[in-house]
Amino acid sequence: MKEFESIQGDNLEESEMAQLLSVTLNEDAVARIRSQMSTGPSLSHCGDCGEEIPKARQLAIKGCKLCIECQTFNERKR
After folding, report:
1. What pLDDT, on the 0 to 100 scale, is given for residue 33?
2. Domain extent listing, the chain
3. CA 54 to CA 29: how far, in whole Å?
4. d(CA 38, CA 57)
5. What is the Cα–Cα distance from 44 to 52, expressed in whole angstroms?
6. Cα 9 to Cα 50: distance, rounded to the nearest angstrom
7. What is the pTM of this model?
8. pLDDT, tens digit, for every residue of 10-58?
C-alpha cells in the first residue's frame, strides 16, 4: 500500500509541475503578444499602403498602424 501511495505522490508532483509549466508558457505567450501590440494613437491612414483606416478600427484597436488588408498580409507572412 505504501508503494502505491508513493507512486501517487510522484504523479501528483509531476502533474503539478506540468501545470506550472503550462501556466508559465501561457504567461510568456501573453507577454510576447502584448509586446508586439501597438501603443499610442492610431493612424488615420495605413502605414504600408496609405489607404484610410476606418474610424471604427482606429477606435477598436489602440495604436492601429495598418489597414485590415495589410495587417492580415503581415500576420500571414509571419
Report:
1. 78
2. 1-36, 38-78
3. 29
4. 13
5. 6
6. 61
7. 0.54
8. 676 888 888 888 989 899 888 887 777 777 899 999 999 999 999 999 9
Q: What is the DSSP string of 17-76?
A: HHHHHHHHHHHHHHHHHHHHS--SPPPSB-TTT-PBPPHHHHHHSTT--S-HHHHHHHHH
Q: Give residue 36's region: left, alpha or beta (phi > 0; psi -120 to 50).
A: alpha
- Is residue 46 a contact partner of residue 38, using CB atoms and an 8 Å limit? no
Amino acid identity, residue 26?
Answer: N
Nearest-angstrom CA–CA distance, 61 and 39: 9
- Type of residue at 8: Q
**pLDDT value at position 46?**
97
CA distance 26 to 21: 9
